[in-house]
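Q: Fold this one first, please.
A: Sequence and structure below.
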Amino acid sequence: MRRLIFPIIILTALCGILVSACKKNTYHVTERDVITNAALLKIGYFCPSIRNQGVQIKINGNRVSGNVTYAQAFPGGGLNTGGLSNSDYLLTPGNEVNIQLSVPKVGTSDDSVAVLTFSQPLSANKRYTLFTTDSVPNVSGVLVADDTQPSDTGARIKLINLIPNVAAVDFYHRGKLIMPNVQYKKVSDYVNIPFGSDTFAIRNAGDPITAPVIAFRVIATSRQRIYTFLGRGWKGAAGTLAPQVSAVIVQ
């Protein structure tokens, strides 16, 4: 078992190589690790852009990532996202945490274009995901607390609406409405669902089940796993900007 002592070394398995500009203030962690006196943080970069320039992530002024592109959760990913498909989090001090996203100058960790600055105190021994939405220069962040109590028999899920041009959405599983009226940048309560490969769909809030969907996706969930589902992209757009249903693995 690892003994976690600050300053903590960044594990490099997710990044491939050590980012030379990183300071020893974070640590990649999964549900297999025992955590004490620290907060767990994941960054969900869901700001669609035609150019899709990579952004670097800094925590308390120290770079902790390579270039992260849309649509990706770092350091652990999810389903219908880029990056790795695991439940990793960054280990951070359990106090005021300053998160910066920026486009770096080529070949350096210096900021070229500021994307987002977000500060908030985090509680020790808790898990959080900071979801980003919209596009530069209007990027905003939504911090979501992640529960870790799984369903005994199925999967446990919640939904966050990250589609900027849709005020509220209804979320369907297997053609059944399970999360109504999830407003933009808001997150639903958790619900338990049967695990397996199923269709998930998003419609405008209040639309009948016969109305066209904004987005749908077949996603395979696993027993006793916890996920945050999300609607992302822009309604009516195509290509990289098209609306999508994705899921980020909590545990």
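Q: Good. Now the second chain.
A: Here it is, same layout.
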Amino acid sequence: MAGPKQTPDESALLEAMVVAARDAGTKILELVATGYKVEIKADASPVTICDRAAEAIILAALATAAPDVPVIAEEEVAVGRIPAHGDTYFLVDPLDGTKEFVRGGDDYTVNIGLIEGGVPRLGVVFQPPLDILWGGQVGVGAFVEEGGTRRDITTRPLGDQRAAVASKSHFNQATADYLEQAVGVCGHVSVGSSLKFCLVAQGMADIYPRLSPTSEWDTAAGHAVLLAAGGRVDGPDGGPLAYGKTDFLNRGFCATGGWEAPLIGPLLKMLAGDGDVPQES
């Protein structure tokens, strides 16, 4: 794959992120086995001890692996702890897909991403209940670890047989209409969390449109994996989805296997006018 050469420092950091994500996932599974209570945060989203314990493990691991790189983590931000940072920092979602998690689903993930200059550089996404982990270094390549082995992954060319992945919580008519415009009539799989990025990165789907807001820590890790696998993620105006926004909020985006999809900006404006742009996790 074309791009900058892998450096030992980045390689070591990516492996440290892999270990941190796996350790956090192990802790989540331990807490699931013993039971936990669900709390509601100020933004009305659910949170559990699993989120907080996983985040603590990741924060400690990153402080050792990259002590000079600030970490912006979901639960830390929720209580007002946002470190001073420049254009290089980690974005962490210790348990992405909490809504599905508390319902007993298995499509939740641990997300760790590294941002440099407004774009994802490294990413790790781990699905604890199935013991599947995706990782990527942009410009070098992406991989999946499953069944005790690691193998490289790449996106697939857009062919005659097309498939989409979409939000499990809010697949609506607007999303269906957009997909028909982008790739024609095709099947779609509804999946929670950042797994949607990984399915496109692994060549199991062609497109993932998002027509509602997400936080930057929801997307950074999966975005990095997809870019490393040869894909792209465009913002509402068609340019690359950028990071470093003051509110850490993405308005919407479209992720593909590397090809240019129709703009989602006009559709977002129409939905906003209808009051039909739900926040989703």
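Q: Anything worth noting on the second one?
A: Residues 1-7, 275-281 have pLDDT under 50 and may be disordered.
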